[in-house]
């Protein structure tokens, strides 16, 4: 049984106003259009399908919210039990609601995302759950399909790929996906936006102190000539507001980190830049009240 909710095939949208402001040809890969509203769904479909094929009775993950929402939905589709671990108070309200609606079991951990991640690994090792975090290669394999979508929609490789940097799984997945498309060792230049305040940034989806995939990300950056841009809260908030007010795309704050990285680093004029917008704004409705009044 293939477990699917119709994930993937998300739009690649031109951003004419931001292109003019930034001096580049800017495109927006709108992954908020996935079934649970985030980029996690491509990988979760593969991971849950493989877990079901292996005879699993349940799945487990640690999450700042989007993985949890996706895991709960795909587990429900597969008839599996989902246990999701979050740092206490660390997941946005919209994502918690998605987990509860799908019947997922939420366990809050005192500490950080990293503490939740350690507990998820323990449950997988000792209690037989399948871990569906991005340490599971099935997740990366599923997410890597987004690279093929970008190339098909754009008609070739972008010059720059900009995306948020939390745990680093999506960076690894895109690099894997581009590598399998017949371009040899060529990659777009990866431009990653991370929060300076990783522990407590208002962009909760990238509130990860120790990126699980840091070593792999470093290799991708070396291969692609890319870089990490460390962003202040004001830069993240500005990019988030600008995206919706200039282009009408309402994302959660972390999803605008790629835009903020482009604003801060200013790629070569005329470059063809794809920004991956990872999650829908309705994931974190409280952020609007906090930042926009």
How would you describe this structure to a colleague?
The chain folds into 2 domains: 12-38 and 139-292, 3-Layer(aba) Sandwich (Rossmann fold); 40-136, 3-Layer(aba) Sandwich (Rossmann fold). The protein has helices at residues 16-22, 40-53, 66-78, 93-101, 113-127, 137-143, 145-154, 169-179, 214-224, 233-247, 257-265, 285-292; strands spanning 12-14, 25-30, 58-62, 81-87, 105-109, 130-131, 160-164, 189-195, 227-231, 272-277. 44% of the residues lie in helices and 17% in strands. It has 293 residues and is of the alpha/beta class. Helix 2 packs across helix 6 (137-143) and helix 3 runs parallel beside helix 4 (93-101). It contains 12 helices and 10 strands. It starts with 11 loop residues before the first strand and ends with a helix. The strands form 2 sheets. A 6-stranded mixed β-sheet has the order 1-2-10-7-8-9, sandwiched between helices. Strand 7 (160-164), helix 8 and strand 8 form a beta-alpha-beta unit. The protein is globular, with a radius of gyration of 18 Å. The mean pLDDT is 95. The relative contact order is 0.17.
TL;DR?
By secondary structure, the chain is α/β, with parallel strands linked by helices. The protein has helices at 16-22, 40-53, 66-78, 93-101, 113-127, 137-143, 145-154, 169-179, 214-224, 233-247, 257-265, 285-292, and strands at 12-14, 25-30, 58-62, 81-87, 105-109, 130-131, 160-164, 189-195, 227-231, 272-277.
Order of helices and strands: EHEHEHEHEHEHHEHEHEHHEH
- What does the main sheet amount to? 6 strands, mixed
CATH-assigned fold name of the largest domain: Rossmann fold
- Sequence stretches where pLDDT stays below 50 over 5 or more residues: none
CATH architecture of the largest domain: 3-Layer(aba) Sandwich
Give the strand tally.
Answer: 10
Gross geometry: globular
Mean pLDDT: 95
Q: What is the terminal-to-terminal distance?
A: 46 Å
In terms of quaternary structure, what is this?
A: single chain
CATH class category name of the largest domain: Alpha Beta
Count of domains: 2
What portion of residues belong to β-strands? 15-25%
Structural class, by secondary structure, is alpha/beta
Q: Number of DSSP helices?
A: 12
- Strands of the biggest beta sheet: in what spatial order? 1-2-10-7-8-9
Helix content: 40-55%
Measured on Cα atoms, how large is the radius of gyration? 18 Å
């Amino acid at each position: 049984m293939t477990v699917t909710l119709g994930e993937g095939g998300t739009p690649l949208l031109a951003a004419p106003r931001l292109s003019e402001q930034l001096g580049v040809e800017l495109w927006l890969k709108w992954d908020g259009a996935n079934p649970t509203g985030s980029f996690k769904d491509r990988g979760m479909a593969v991971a849950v399908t493989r877990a079901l094929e292996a005879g699993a009775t349940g799945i487990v993950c640690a999450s700042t919210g989007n993985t949890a929402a996706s895991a709960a939905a795909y587990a429900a589709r597969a008839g599996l039990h989902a246990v999701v671990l979050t740092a206490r108070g660390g997941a946005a309200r919209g994502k918690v609601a998605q987990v509860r609606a799908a019947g997922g079991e939420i366990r809050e951990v005192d500490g950080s995302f990293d503490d939740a991640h350690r507990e998820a690994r323990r449950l997988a090792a000792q209690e037989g759950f399948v871990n569906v975090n991005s340490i599971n290669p099935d997740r990366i394999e599923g997410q890597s399909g987004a690279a093929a979508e970008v190339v098909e929609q754009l008609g070739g490789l972008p010059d720059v790929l900009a995306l948020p940097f939390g745990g680093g799984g999506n960076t690894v997945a895109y690099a894997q996906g581009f590598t399998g498309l017949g371009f040899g060792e060529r990659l777009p230049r990866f431009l990653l936006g991370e929060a300076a305040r990783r522990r407590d940034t208002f962009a909760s989806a990238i509130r990860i102190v120790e990126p699980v995939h840091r070593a792999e990300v470093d290799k991708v950056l070396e291969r692609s000539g890319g870089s990490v841009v460390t962003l202040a809260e004001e830069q993240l908030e500005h990019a988030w507001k600008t995206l919706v007010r200039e282009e009408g795309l309402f994302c959660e704050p972390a999803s605008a980190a790629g835009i903020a990285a482009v604003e801060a680093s200013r790629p070569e004029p005329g470059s063809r830049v794809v920004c991956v917008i990872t999650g829908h704004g309705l994931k974190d409705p409280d952020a609007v009240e906090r930042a926009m009044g």
